[in-house]
Specification:
Blueprint: H1 4-31, H2 41-69
Helix pairs in contact: 1-2
């Protein structure tokens, strides 16, 4: 069974993940902070956004696939 809608959303969400990851990498490079947030509040916020995304999106994709497989 092909789950086309879930696959489309998963691909779009991967693009968002790459964007969030890139922002953190750039912020680490510009602030020269190599580990964690180094006390930089803006970097901490970016890292938390990325963390929230990584924590919640896999479950969302799984639930979407379950609904799609079941004809929803």
């Amino acid at each position: 069974m092909v789950i086309e809608i879930t696959a489309l959303y998963a691909a779009l969400l991967v693009a968002v993940l790459v964007f969030l990851t890139t922002r953190i990498g750039v912020k680490h490079a510009t602030t020269r902070i190599s580990i964690l947030d180094g006390g930089d509040k803006r970097l901490a916020v970016e890292m938390r956004r990325h963390g929230n995304f990584v924590e919640h999106v896999p479950l969302l994709i799984l639930l979407m696939a379950i609904v799609e497989v079941n004809g929803g």
